[in-house]
């Protein structure tokens, strides 16, 4: 879904935010007890930039470069604690890395952090093992049940359509980014994309021509 919005402006705002956060850390303007929050904000901004680039119609190489820029920030900031929101970040970064065909070396920089924190489940392991075959297979229930448990049963274009029409956005009703497209005061909408559905379609080779205009489905990314 590429709703009208000034994604180029948002990308510039996010880049300025990153510079501000980095300067606050380096200069000592921010107190050390704020460093973790600022580093997390840096990573989240990079991830939003990657998504906003896709929403803005950027090609594979632009989005791929944005994803690669996420990785050092992910390494520097991410620590998994069970809570709403972090699973989005993990599954989106992993899925976008699959769709952008990042190198195995760069991909394993992401999975090393998940491995360090003991994060694995049925959905993550399926997506990760498509590229990193040595990753431990897991049959454990999906960490963030809503909406992602339903993503483990996507085997056809109709399954994906049902997931996106009935489950995906509704299952994120408590997410910080939910309904950001309605915010008229602050430009904070980077797009709504079910990256995991696209990654699964690519991995399974699902025929998805009927999903070309499907809401929330990043069709172009599957066909890069």
TrEMBL record:
It holds the Pfam family PoNi_N. Gene3D superfamilies: PA2201 C-terminal domain-like. InterPro entries: PA2201-like_C, PoNi_C, PoNi_N. Residues 36-110 form the PoNi N-terminal domain. It comes from the Bacteria. SUPFAM superfamilies: PA2201 C-terminal domain-like (SSF140731). Residues 120-220 form the PoNi C-terminal domain. This is DUF1911 domain-containing protein.
């Amino acid at each position: 879904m590429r709703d009208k919005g000034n994604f180029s402006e948002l990308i510039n705002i996010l880049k300025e935010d990153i510079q501000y956060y980095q300067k606050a850390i380096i200069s000592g303007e921010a107190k050390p007890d704020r460093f973790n929050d600022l580093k997390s904000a840096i990573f989240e901004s990079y991830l939003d930039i990657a998504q906003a680039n896709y929403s803005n119609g950027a090609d594979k190489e632009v989005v791929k470069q944005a994803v690669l820029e996420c990785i050092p920030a992910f390494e520097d900031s991410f620590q998994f604690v069970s809570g709403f929101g972090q699973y989005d970040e993990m599954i989106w970064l992993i899925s976008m890395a699959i769709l952008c065909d990042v190198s195995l070396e760069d991909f394993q920089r992401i999975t090393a952090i998940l491995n360090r924190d003991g994060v694995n489940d049925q959905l993550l392991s399926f997506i990760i093992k498509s590229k990193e075959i040595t990753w431990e297979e897991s049959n454990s229930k999906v960490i963030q049940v809503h909406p992602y448990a339903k993503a483990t049963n996507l085997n056809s274009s109709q399954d994906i359509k049902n997931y996106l029409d009935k489950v995906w956005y509704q299952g994120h009703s408590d997410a910080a980014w939910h309904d950001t497209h309605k915010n008229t005061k602050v430009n904070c909408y980077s797009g709504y994309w079910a990256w995991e559905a696209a990654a699964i379609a690519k991995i399974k080779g699902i025929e998805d021509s009927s999903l070309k205009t499907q809401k929330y489905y990043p069709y172009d990314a599957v066909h890069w």
